[in-house]
Automatic annotation (TrEMBL):
This is C-type cytochrome. Residues 1-27 form the signal peptide. PANTHER family: CYTOCHROME C7-LIKE DOMAIN-CONTAINING PROTEIN (PTHR39425:SF1), LIPOPROTEIN CYTOCHROME C (PTHR39425). The chain crosses the membrane at residues 159-176, 215-236. Residues 29-127 form the Cytochrome c domain. The keyword Transport does not apply. It comes from the Bacteria. Keywords: Heme, Iron, Membrane, Metal-binding, Signal, Transmembrane, Transmembrane helix. InterPro entries: Cyt_c-like_dom, Cyt_c-like_dom_sf, Multihaem_cyt_sf. The lineage of its organism: Bacteria, Pseudomonadati, Bacteroidota, Flavobacteriia, Flavobacteriales.
Amino acid sequence: MISWRKHYKRGLIAIYVLLSTSASIYAQGDAKNGEKLFKANCVACHALDKQLVGPALGGIVDKVKKESNLDTSWLKKWIKDNKSLRESGDKDAIAIFEKFNKVEMLAFPNLTDKDIDDILEYTTNPPAAAPAADAATAPDTNSVAALEMAQKQSMNSKVILISLIAIGGLLLWLLLKLRQLVKLQQTEELAGLNASRAVSFGDLYRKYSYVGKGVLVVLGIFAAYGIWNWLMWVGVYKGYKPEQPIYFSHKIHAGENKIDCQLCHSSAKYGKVSEVPSLNVCMNCHKMIAEYNGKYIEPGKDKAFYDGEIQKIYSAVGWDPASQQYTGKTQPVEWTRIHNMPDFVYFNHAQHVVAGENAIITSYNKKNPEAKIDVVCKACHGQIDTMNVVQMANDFTMGWCIECHRTTEVDMTNGYNKEYFKNLHDKLKKQYGSGTKVTVAAIGGLECGKCHY
């Protein structure tokens, strides 16, 4: 009997050890810390509930255990250096590489075993989302107090309306009484004279002809000025911000995420025009970002709205997020152009973005100390990183450009400019004094042929 109990006890201990060993796969790390590490290192290519560039990682420990009989030690080798694991001849590592289009996963040698345990714990047992606000704490709009408040507001509105009607009636009564008083004070002789008097417009004009002609001249001048002013502002669309077929928020991309302007508008640095980035540029990021998880949401919008706009990109380029492949079915996107330089004007972005970068930023910050800029693009396009919808921030008239050329100083700290414009600088010092500065106008910035050729 004692022997049987002893074996029974040992059996229970063995079962407990077995269960605890298998359970330890799921409870070896800190899920909260794992969530932070996952978002910092994995979220660009993986999600818990769906495939992105890589497979869905929700319950990945259990999956590799059931499908390939692999444990967490293999996962750690894969995460730290999957390339070395493949080169060692590991069949499972090679099979995963082949399955996901031979897209090589980044190596993470910086992650410790404890870090990976935390990440795996997060993929197995993600922390529950914060509970929604208790409905009991919400204000009860049907309570007695709420009804009484609504009745009071309705009564106040009625009192105000009745008071306004009474005041209007009183004013009308006063006007009628004043009219009666005026009629009483008028004598019979004066009343007859006013009734029989007839004034000819021709007599009145001949009597005051000079005044009339002067008024006509003034009106003519005002009319001519109005027409001229209207003509001068033809084609000036400051504040113009049309809706685009796919919503794009510069505030989210350039502001919240600090993406450099020239990452998308690369041709602005090397060419005449900045161009509208192709959707292939968008897919460099959105191939791995299928939904919006940012903290900033524009008033009137929600996460579903942003997710829908990302899906428009996928439809346009023919991208299937499920298979992570292009279908070949594309749709052109008809963007609405905002900035359009006239054909008779030559403007080179590279000349301003590269050669004039320091000079333009320095000059702008001197003239606008309360709204300094850190990127040369903002000098013309405004605070682009704060715009949800891009708008034309300046006039872009000839006078606006000339004023900039007259006030922007050439960067003489540049070794090339310092040597090339040395004689010009010395000449300006003799002509205007030692405090004179070399501006863009001084080096030909006002010559007609520079912009009109």
